[in-house]
UniProtKB/TrEMBL annotation:
PANTHER family: CALPONIN (PTHR47385), TRANSGELIN (PTHR47385:SF14). InterPro entries: Calponin-like, Calponin_repeat, CH_dom, CH_dom_sf, SM22_calponin. Coiled coil: none annotated. Belongs to the calponin family. It comes from the Eukaryota. Residues 25-134 form the Calponin-homology (CH) domain. Transmembrane segments: none annotated. SMART domains: CH. Pfam families: Calponin (PF00402), CH (PF00307). SUPFAM superfamilies: Calponin-homology domain, CH-domain (SSF47576). This is Calponin-homology (CH) domain-containing protein.
Amino acid sequence: MAEYRANKSGINADAQARINSKYNDNIGQEILEWIKVLTGEPANTSGDADNVYEVLKDGTLLCKLVNAIEEGSVKKINQSTMAFKCMENINAFLEAAKKLGVPPQETFQTIDLWEKQNLYSVLICLQSLGRKAGNYGKPSIGPKEADRNVRNFSEEQLKSGQNVISLQYGTNKGQQSGITFGNRRQM
């Protein structure tokens, strides 16, 4: 676990401090309250990083969360506190979240939660899952996901765009005096 690791120093400490500075207690509290609405747990919905870590680190609540959104998403939830069993729970949650529609770039690595390396990415994943929960008839959190806006253009409209000369090609409009390219010829 994270408490058995040596403290980071130098550039690694700076990088970790930058990651930790992104964490937002208000978002953490909003997410824990949303989880409580769906699962009935946890008792303490304080959004500070230590509480979020303690509540989510073994992965059982995360598995219960995806099962509350769609029944049977995680078949087996390990109740053991052994490290690899807890990391299996977190990994099972991540796989279920991807199946529920969370994009891979918004997920986190198991180690980010288990060793408390990047709780900000955990919050991003849970917010994304919160947006997708609305698709399954459950309460959602965060900004509403955009609706699809498909546009159909006719062949005539598409071909008319080929007759327009882009300004990237230059223009003969306006004054061009004073424009030079390269060095002048020295005689």
